[in-house]
Write a sequence for this structure.
């Protein structure tokens, strides 16, 4: 690519793995008959499509042949890219295939549906009916935008889109790659409270799904916690997540998988501050990660399920969601702390400034839990 990215094009690879003389084409012919190979030795795509269309079992056979070959070729291209490369996967069916959580950053190029119809008619010679039918078979705009960490508006000219790509490359992708390669997390920075954002819940769900995938069987649930998980509460624009594990040994085994989705372990943070009801520091141990994305800040707290820190993170979130007075009281504490620590280069003193309120409020949250019948979500 012009800017230096290594492009892994899923459509091109899908054709490559069943090209003339390939292992993939040989296996497709074995599965569906020699007639799927045309006179030129290439796969007869319309014939194969007619065989698998509307037949889930046969489609599964075809996918069982091609998908592992595609994945193997993609892995080869990524391995060959070398250190320092920015690898861009061009995957038109990212949502349909359920692959969005595989990547540390998903960019969606978005165009208004009516404009897409017009462009298909003008550039591809399609009828309007055919263009609308094609769009109807694809994932919806809402589904694509839900998996997007960045959105490139393509309603304008090609030059405008190129300018947006250039900005994304230089301001986000290049520093993102460098941060991951060097193991450099992006910290919270100066504490600045912003008004609640409509995308906070979707971002939390998107990032949580990414963590859950890499955690696999070691993970016992991922939750969006902290202030951005409380509707209506102004907060620092940071997504806090909590991953539950059976033991911290399981947490330590996840260091590399989490780094693959751009979450960097901060070894200096090893526990939460003990609360008066359980002052034993060893009970509050955890692992802590921060993201490498310069424009999407995320903190991941990995705690043993049923530990006091794990329970309290979920309890405070749900209590603040339910109790208007507690939420307003906490907001005043946050605003006072943010004002006091406004000149600080990081948020550590801001966090410490709020701790006395959490210590005092913990018993009230517990009383709310008892009166409401609250219990952790899993």
């Amino acid at each position: 690519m012009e800017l230096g990215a290594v492009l892994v094009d899923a459509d091109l690879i899908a054709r490559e793995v069943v090209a003339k003389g390939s292992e993939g084409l040989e296996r497709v012919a074995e599965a569906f008959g020699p007639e799927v190979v045309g006179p030129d030795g290439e796969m007869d795509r319309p014939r194969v499509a007619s065989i698998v269309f509307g037949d889930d079992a046969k489609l599964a056979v075809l996918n069982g042949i091609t998908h592992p070959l595609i994945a193997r070729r993609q892995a080869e291209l990524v391995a060959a890219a070398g250190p320092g490369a920015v690898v861009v996967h061009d995957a038109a069916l990212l949502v349909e295939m359920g692959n969005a959580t595989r990547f540390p950053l998903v960019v969606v190029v978005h165009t208004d549906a009516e404009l897409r119809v017009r462009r298909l008619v003008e550039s591809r010679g399609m009828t309007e009916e055919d263009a609308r039918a094609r769009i109807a078979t694809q994932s919806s705009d809402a589904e694509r935008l839900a998996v997007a960490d960045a959105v490139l508006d393509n309603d304008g000219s090609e030059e405008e889109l190129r300018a947006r790509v250039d900005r994304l490359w230089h301001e986000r992708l290049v520093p993102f790659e460098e941060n991951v390669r060097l193991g450099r997390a992006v910290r919270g920075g100066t504490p600045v409270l912003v008004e609640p954002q409509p995308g906070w819940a979707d971002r939390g769900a998107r990032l949580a799904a990414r963590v859950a995938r890499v955690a696999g069987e070691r993970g016992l649930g991922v939750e969006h916690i902290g202030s951005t998980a409380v509707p209506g509460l102004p907060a620092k624009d940071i997504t806090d997540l909590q991953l539950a594990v059976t033991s911290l040994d399981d947490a330590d085994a996840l260091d590399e998988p989490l780094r693959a989705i751009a979450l960097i372990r901060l070894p200096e943070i090893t526990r939460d501050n003990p609360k008066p009801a359980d002052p034993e520091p060893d009970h509050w141990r955890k692992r802590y990660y921060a993201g490498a994305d310069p424009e999407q800040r995320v903190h991941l707290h990995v705690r043993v399920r049923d530990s006091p820190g794990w329970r309290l993170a979920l309890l405070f979130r749900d209590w603040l969601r339910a109790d208007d007075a507690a939420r307003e009281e906490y907001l005043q504490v946050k605003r006072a702390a943010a004002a006091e620590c406004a000149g600080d280069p990081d948020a550590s003193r801001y966090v410490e400034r709020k701790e006395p309120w959490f210590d005092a409020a913990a018993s009230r949250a517990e009383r709310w839990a008892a009166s409401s019948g609250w219990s952790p979500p899993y």
User: Anything to note?
Assistant: The first strand starts at residue 6 and ends at 9. The CA atoms of residues 13 and 377 lie 42 Å apart.
